[in-house]
Design brief:
Shape: elongated
Distance between the termini: 64 Å
Oligomer: single chain
Strand content: under 5%
Mean pLDDT: 87
Radius of gyration: 25 Å
Largest sheet: none
Number of domains: 2
Number of helices: 26
């Protein structure tokens, strides 16, 4: 399983840093500075707007091993995904789920998992799933042997999973689901045993919410009403199911469909869930329905944190994302493995065709995963593919434009950043970067207009003040340049020492 996973993800080993990888790794002073390790855990002036210290610790260690070389980080991600698949196999085996190996292999090779495995920043999901699966294994051992060392081990592993990413917080409910699968009921003693897990989940979730709300800038696009969130959740689950069953047309940023709670159409997907619910109620006593109940209950439980009930920054771009169903994917793959095992082992006439079908699906997943991983080769390849599949994704144009800006391909950068602003004129970073393009082209008036607009949208954007200071400097407006530099420093921004010296010299003041 590990060998096949490594082979399927071989193209991702040769990819670079994409999107916000620099924010988490190469551009994160808490990771790159030798004496900054403690800042990752105490949370003082964090470089990212989340409290995931275990994830950042792995980046801190790896930066000491291979520095800014992205290959080592990608290999670590792929190995973590392979380990998660192996642990999923062991959990399914211990639960007595048929076709455990096939289900785990489907998970290992599923194309949807590429969005998590090939993206260095998504290390938090990989790491938390590894510890979460280990926690489940330890809890199942405790349930069998009643040795409290396994119970303590399970609690500690769950805490580590939360420190990797708190989106794994529904795991305590999954433990109760496993108890129901084994014994057909959940007693009060089982609930008490899982209570510490719930306490840890709520506590770390509160810390995460505090970090994101106190450190992040207000996001008007996430101010949604209860009705809107319900409508988004109802459709999102159907979307995820469709991509899990037929993993084609995958991309990074999907179209953010409009939601108007006052109309009937947004409520149709949510209302459609009454059909499978009615079917389940009608056949609930049938033994063959228990595996499907386990799989779908797990699937929905692990999706709950990302269905829109809680505001997530990424939802400014899209309601759904492939990397958000990474945890849940295990449930559907396990159901697929169980169905395949039953098909192969029940009758001799269907055994060979069933085995051929299973091999065909695994082969197809392998090819699709290979192709999808290859798209993560570089920023231009990834976002060009995204634009082809979703031409209305402003963040795709923005990221590609930033890449062109870094390469000083100013014409392409200007075109992409202008298109991003046309699609979403309310994002400060779009104007800040286009202002930089205008500055490099020596269009100072256009640069000044864009950078001023960026500051209006986000008065705490230190980079915009620094960039506008450069414009004022070239316009010989030294007093306003110095005022912007001072504001940039007050906001914690970095300033080139040479610029400070030139400003002092040009203004003729002893500052």
């Amino acid at each position: 399983m590990v060998a096949v996973t490594l082979l399927a993800y071989a193209p991702a080993m040769r990819t670079g840093f994409i999107w916000d990888d620099g924010l988490y790794v190469t551009g994160n002073p808490d990771v790159t500075r030798p004496g900054s390790f403690h800042r990752i855990w105490v949370g003082r002036q964090p470089s990212v707007e989340q409290y995931y210290p275990l994830t950042l610790t792995t980046f801190w260690v790896e930066y000491r091993l291979w520095g800014p070389n992205p290959t080592g980080y990608h290999v670590t991600n792929i190995l973590l995904h392979a380990v998660a698949a192996v642990l999923a196999w062991r959990v399914l085996r211990r639960l007595g789920v048929p076709g455990a190996w096939l289900g785990a292999m489907l998970f290992a090779l599923h194309p949807v998992a590429v969005a998590t495995t090939a993206w260095i920043t998504a290390r938090k999901s990989l790491l938390s799933l590894v510890f979460a699966a280990s926690s489940v294994l330890a809890f199942l051992r405790f349930d069998e042997e009643r040795r409290y060392r396994w119970y303590v081990t399970s609690v500690v592993l769950f805490l580590l999973a939360l420190l990797g990413k708190t989106a794994v917080m529904p795991l305590p409910a999954v433990l109760l689901l496993a108890v129901w699968w084994r014994r057909g009921r959940v007693g009060s003693r089982d609930v008490l045993r899982v209570a510490p897990f719930f306490a840890l989940a709520v506590g770390l979730a509160a810390v995460t919410v505090w970090f994101e709300h106190s450190l992040a800038q207000p996001r008007p696009g996430l101010a949604l009403g209860v009705a809107t969130r319900l409508a988004v959740a109802g459709r999102a689950v159907w979307f995820y199911l469709a991509k899990a069953v037929v993993p084609v047309g995958l991309t990074v940023v999907y179209k953010r469909w409009p939601i108007d709670p006052g109309r009937v159409s947004p409520w149709i997907p949510l209302a459609a869930w009454t059909i499978p619910a009615a079917g389940w109620w009608w056949f609930r006593r049938k033994r063959w329905l228990r595996p499907a109940t386990l799989a779908f209950a797990y699937y929905v439980l692990m999706l709950l944190p990302v269905l829109g009930f809680v505001g997530i920054a990424f939802m400014e771009y899209a309601w759904v994302a492939d990397h958000w169903q990474y945890y849940s994917l295990v449930g559907l793959c396990a159901l697929g493995g169980a169905a395949g095992r039953r098909l192969c082992g029940r009758r001799p006439l269907t055994a060979l065709p069933g085995a051929i079908a299973a091999a065909a699906v695994l082969t197809l997943f392998f090819v699709l995963t290979w192709q999808r991983a290859a798209l993560y080769h570089d920023t231009v390849t990834l976002w060009t593919d995204n634009i082809r599949k979703n031409p209305e994704a402003p963040v795709a144009y923005f990221n590609r434009g930033c890449f062109y800006l870094g390469k000083r391909d100013l014409d392409k950068a200007l075109a992409d950043l202008t298109r991003a602003i046309e699609l979403d004129p309310g994002i400060a970073a779009f104007y800040n970067n286009r202002g930089c393009v205008h500055f490099y082209r020596r269009n100072l008036e256009e640069a000044l207009a864009d950078l001023t607009r960026a500051i209006e949208l986000d008065p705490a954007m230190a980079d915009a003040y620094r960039n506008r200071a450069m414009v004022f400097f070239f316009r010989e407006d030294y007093d306003r340049a110095w005022a912007d530099i001072t504001t940039c420093q007050a906001l914690g921004g970095r300033v080139d020492p040479k610029l400070l010296m030139d400003l002092r010299s040009a203004s003729g003041r002893n500052r």
